[in-house]
Amino acid sequence: MNKYNITIMLWTKENKMANPYNSPWIKQNTFVKIRDDKFRWKFMAIKKHCTTNVTANEFHSVLAINKDIYIAKNSNKFRLRSHLDWAWYTPKTLAQAIDTGTVDSYYEIMLHNINSDPNVWKDHDFEMTLKSYYAARADRASLI
Known about the structure:
By secondary structure, the chain is of the alpha+beta class.
């Protein structure tokens, strides 16, 4: 394996349906390429504790897990797709939240953790404008 092109095999229901007889001659797209070492180690730390299938997409400076959770590259912080603030996490507890489907409540709890950055904005009107825009885009405007 090349250091910069690590492939991780992920099985999903769609992949099994694409090859119902497990034929070795049918090529399947079951690999997720994570080229950055930091992202690869963070993803493997979370996947090690998960019992469900986890998918990952690599962007410029974030790793998207299950298309809803964004992991930062240079720190142990995460945020949800529809939120602005970054919260601190541990791979084991984040994996448990993914397994149980309680990532939203886990995010709210970890926002108030000591290791999370304080939410200090200079312009509170701009903060509320951005947060209401993100909430409306994610169909959770009633929470603001």
